[in-house]
Amino acid sequence: MEPVTLGVLGLGLMIVLIVMGVHIGISMAVVGFLGMAAITGMDAALGMLQTTPYSTVANYGLSVIVLFVLMGQLAYHSGLSYDLYKASFTWLGHLPGGLAMSTVVACTGIGALCGSTTATTATMGIVALPEMKRFGYQGGFAAATVACAGTLGTMVPPSVLLMLYGVMCSLSIGKLFSAVVIPGLTLLLLYLLVAYLVVLRNPELGPRGPKCSWKERFESLYHVKDLLFLIVLVIGGMLGGFFTVNEGGAVGVLGALVVAGFRRSLSFAMLKQALLDTGKTSAMIFMVITGAMIFGYFLAISRLPGEMAQFFAELPFHRNIVMFGIILLYIFLGALMDELAMLLLTIPIFFPVVAALQFNPYWFGVLLVLVMASGMICPPVGINCFIIAGIDKSIPITQIYKAIWPYWGAIVVMLFLMFLIPDLALWLPSVLM
Questions:
Q1: Using 50, 70 and 90 to split pLDDT, how confident is the model at 416?
Q2: In the chain, how many domains are there?
Q3: Lowest CB count within 10 Å: 108, 255, 260, 427, which one?
Q4: pTM, to two decimals
Q5: Can you tell me the distance from the alpha carbon of 143 to that of 149, in angstroms, rounded to the nearest whole number?
Q6: 317-335: buried (b, 16+ CB within 10 Å) or exposed (e) per residue?
C-alpha cells in the first residue's frame, strides 16, 4: 500500500479513536506507531517509540509551558484575579453592560498570566458569574460573556497555544507573542463594544451598577498593582528583549512568589495545590505533545502533508479562498475538540500548506489562535460554554448558545481585519524583533 494512502487511513483511524473517547495523546501515539511500523518496519517504529517520548519532554523550549502554567496558578491562588475584577467594575460598572465589560477586561488580565482559554474561563466563571447574577444580569448573557471573554486567554501573551505552535514550527516564540498583542487588544475592544451595545439595546439583560467616585477608582488601581507589576515584568521584559521567553517564565514564577509573600495570601496548602495543579496540567500537555510528535513522524514519512501542500498550491483559486476553507474547517473542529488537541493534530498537516501558499507563518499563527477561539464557543459543543454550564448548573446550555452570537460576530470581524490589515500582526514584531 502506498505511504500516502496509509497516511489518509491513519488520519481516519485517529479521528475514529477520538470520537470513541480515547485520549487524544494516546490516539495519536498508537496510530503514529502503527503507521510507522507499516511503512518502515517494526524495528524502526520501536526505535522511534524508544527515543521520542524522552526527547520531547526533555526539550528545553517546552519548559516555558510549565513555568507559565505555574505562574498562573500562583497568581490565581494569591487572589489577583478577584482584585482585577473588582477594579474593572469600579471603572466600568456604571456603564450599560458595565459588569460584562469588567469581566472582559478581567479575562484579558488573567489570560496574561495563565495563557489558556479554558483556565481563564474557569477562573473568571468562579469569580464573575456569581457577581453578575447578584447584580441582576440575565443568566444566559452573563454565562456567554464569561465563556466568550475567556477566549482572550490565548489572544494575549503568554499564549500556551502560540508557544506550542512556535515549538512545532520552529518559530520565534517572542515574535509570536509580539504578533498577537495588537490583534488581542483589538478583540478586547470589540468585545467591550459588543457588551455595551447589546445591553444598551436590551437593558433588562444587565442593569447598571453604581457610579464610583474618582477617588474610589484610583484607589482600586492600587489593589491591582501586584497584577500589573507581574504583567509588565514578564510581558514587558520579553517584548523589550531583556530576557528570553523561558527566562520570562522563570521570572514570572519568582515574581508571583514574591507578590504572594508580600500579600501574605498564599498558604502552604495553596502552594501545594498550585504545584499539584501545575503538575497535572503540564503532564496532560506533554502527553498530548508526545503523541503529536509520534503522529507527526508518521505523517512525514507518509508524505501526506507534502502531497496536500502541493494539491492546495496548484488549485485554480486565489490563496485567500483556500485559506478561507482552512478557517471553516478549524471552526468546525473547534466546536468539537479541545484547542490543544486541535492544534497538535492539524499543524503537521496544514503548516506545509500555508508555507506552500506563501502566507507569513507568524500571521497564520495569530489567525489560527483566533479561529480556534471562535470554535471554543460554537455549538454543538463549544468547550467554554460547557465549562460555564458546569460551574453554574442553573443556566441551561441552550441559553448560553443563544447569547454567544454577538461576541462570535466580533471574532468574525477580527478575522476580516486580519485579512484586510495583515500588519495588525506583523507590524509590532518588525519593530521589536
A1: very high
A2: 1
A3: 427
A4: 0.81
A5: 10
A6: eebeebbeebbeebbebbb
